[in-house]
Sequence to fold (151 residues):
Amino acid sequence: MASLFDTETRQQMLARVSQITPDSQRTFGSMTPGEMICHMKDVVEIGLGEKPVTRDMPLGLIVGLGPVRSYVINKLAWPKGKLASPANQMETAPGDFTADVESFKTLLNRFCERGPSGEFGTHALFGKMDGKLWGALMTKHLEHHLGQFGV
Fold:
């Protein structure tokens, strides 16, 4: 599984984020480009441990089990459209699009600077995870939303 901790993967993802504009058309889901960027900012802040979450129970008990969690993150194709967990809903309201994108990039780079051996926050569904799983999850999540806007 690709990881944002790989410099080339991170650079490719950041370049793709730069292709999104306020007028980008989504291919699925209901988020606007600004909402998606803010949603990703929120998720990175959760990964950094800067935005606390409440565990999503009882689903979190099942999905948080090691083998299930690894399968969902590394193997399972994610559905297009509705989010799996209400705990993953966007909290940050979009503001200036360019400023939100730059803020997201800064947060993502901070996340990546920790590396796979760094300390990370608790995920609402998956619970406490090591950096390797967080890197894979963030990559898959960002890939999902970039695909949502065709980039």
The CA atoms of residues 42 and 89 lie 9 Å apart. The radius of gyration is 14 Å. The mean pLDDT is 87.
